[in-house]
Design goal:
- By secondary structure, this protein is an alpha/beta fold.
- It has two domains: 326 residues, Alkaline Phosphatase, subunit A; 98 residues, no CATH class.
- It contains 18 helices and 16 strands.
- Strands 5-6-4-3-7-1-8-15-2-16 form a ten-stranded mixed beta sheet, sandwiched between helices. Strands 9-14 form a two-stranded antiparallel ribbon. The chain has a two-stranded antiparallel ribbon with strand order 10-13.
- Strand 5, helix 9 and strand 6 form a beta-alpha-beta unit.
- Helix 14 crosses helix 17.
């Protein structure tokens, strides 16, 4: 009995010491002048591995997320569960990572009781820092919104845009033009008749609408809206109309770093990784990860010029799709195993359309001729099995956890012939990776809760 008490005392003391050490480390960490958060929505370890392997064998390039940040910086994992469930949505996950407090699914940095906890960008503004939000989604989407403002529900898009105007982030770049414009304007969705683009212009923002205007943009405040809703997947993107993630990141860094004595906090998100996961679009995820890595390389280059001033963080909010690269069997049972490798990622690279664009092109009642033409034109080397053809023609789900009839069936076609399988069309509970390099990076080491991520950011930012 005495021995058991002794061991219990040791455990308690060690636990207390670990907690004190963690807090002391947080309080004593060097505070970076600038923080760049690169956010790959829906990405966990398996997706990062797809990015690393495909970049090496197809592009003959290093993959900065794994080869630099995860390898040379501090590395950790984050659990992702929200307040009210086991599986999270993007709003709850980003809210925890922004405020350090768990909220219910769909809530944007607001508790069920209606309490709005301070976000990362609010803390940065309080500390006198410039702030920027960049995303390939609508700029008012769950993740950028949760890192900056508040809402009981992520669908309160009009309110989120109104809060942006009041908050005045220095940079806003992404899609989501619809809730900046009144319903009377083509593509507009605002019910109050307000033209928020004009309202931002009146506050001194430079308004940009396409890639050329973004590259030529000057000034301290920047609003760029490049699509009515989400921006296009890389394989579908018109580079003249929509800038890449890297081009948006560069414009944001240029604007935020100019005349910024207190530094800045920049949030840069690729949302296409998440949407591609929902659609089971392995080729879409791969290309989105390449686009993400180009933006990351720009951030690392920026940091190299002031390594003691800038913290670069790479992470995601949750995993989407249950991606699993595996081996499979060709044809009937008993055939030899086929291991996913170079030939399989080469097949992904030959796909010339996103699964979302494919589904939109086919429509709700696709004809057999249109489906055959689509496969022949955009999926060279692939064959559509009879059961998947039937699912697309009848618009029937493959199973209860697959929500998108056409996209998920095409994703299953790709899986059967490449080995990139998906377990769901939704989110999973897989912990997400976090890598950090720069002052304060060690705070993000180890296995932590996503609320710890938010608390570390607030300690590093400071503010009143």
């Amino acid at each position: 009995m005495r021995t058991q008490r002794s061991w219990l005392l040791v455990v308690v003391l060690l636990t207390f010491a670990w907690g004190v050490d963690r807090v002391a480390g947080a309080e004593g960490a060097a505070r970076p002048k600038n923080i760049i958060i690169l956010f790959a929505d829906g990405v966990a370890a398996t997706q990062w591995e797809l990015g690393r392997y495909s970049a090496r064998v197809l592009r003959k390039q290093s993959f900065a997320a794994t080869d630099v940040v995860f390898k040379d910086g501090a590395f950790g994992l984050l659990s992702t569960d929200p307040l009210d469930a086991f599986v999270t949505d993007s709003a709850a996950a980003a809210s925890a990572m922004s405020t350090g407090v768990k909220v219910d699914n769909s809530a944007v940095s607001m508790t069920p009781a209606g309490k709005a906890h301070r976000t990362v960008m609010e803390a940065a503004k309080s500390a006198g820092k410039k702030i920027g939000l960049v995303t390939t989604a609508e700029i008012y989407d769950a993740s950028p919104a949760a890192f900056s403002v508040h809402a009981k529900d992520r669908r309160e898009s009009q309110s989120i845009v109104d809060q942006y105007l009041a908050m005045e982030p220095d940079v806003l770049l992404g899609g989501g033009r619809d809730y900046f414009l009144p319903k009377s304007v083509p593509g507009g969705k605002r019910a109050d008749g307000k033209d928020m683009v004009a309202a931002f212009a009146q506050k001194g923002y430079r308004i940009v609408r396409d890639t050329r205007e973004l590259k030529n943009a000057k000034g301290a405040k920047l609003l760029g809206l490049f699509a009515d809703e989400d921006m296009a997947f890389e394989v579908d993107r018109d580079p003249a109309k929509e800038p890449s993630m890297a081009e948006m990141a560069k414009a944001a860094l240029d604007a935020l770093s100019a005349a910024s004595p207190n530094g800045f906090v920049l949030f840069v998100e690729n949302e296409n990784t998440d949407t591609a996961g929902h659609y089971n679009d392995a080729a879409g995820v791969m290309r989105a990860l390449w686009a993400f890595d180009e933006a990351l390389k720009l951030a690392l280059d920026f940091r190299s010029k002031a390594p003691n001033d800038t913290l670069v963080i790479v992470t995601g909010d949750h995993e989407t799709g249950g991606l699993s690269a595996t081996y499979a069997r060709r044809g009937a049972a008993g055939d030899a195993r086929v291991y996913t490798g170079i030939a399989n990622v080469e097949m992904l690279e030959r796909i010339t359309i996103s699964l979302g664009a494919a589904a939109r092109g086919l429509g709700r009642k696709p004809s057999p001729e249109a489906l055959d033409k689509l496969i022949a034109q955009h999926f060279p080397g692939f064959q559509l099995d009879a059961d998947l053809r039937e699912a697309i023609m009848n618009q029937s789900q493959l199973d209860r956890n697959f929500s998108y009839a056409t996209q998920n069936a095409l994703g299953r076609m790709v899986a059967r012939q490449t080995g990139f399988y998906w377990g769901t069309a939704g989110h999973t509970t897989e912990p997400v990776a976090v890598g950090a390099i720069g002052p304060g990076a060690d705070l993000f080491k180890g296995y932590q809760d996503n609320t710890d991520f938010g608390r570390h950011l607030h300690r590093l930012i400071g503010g009143r």
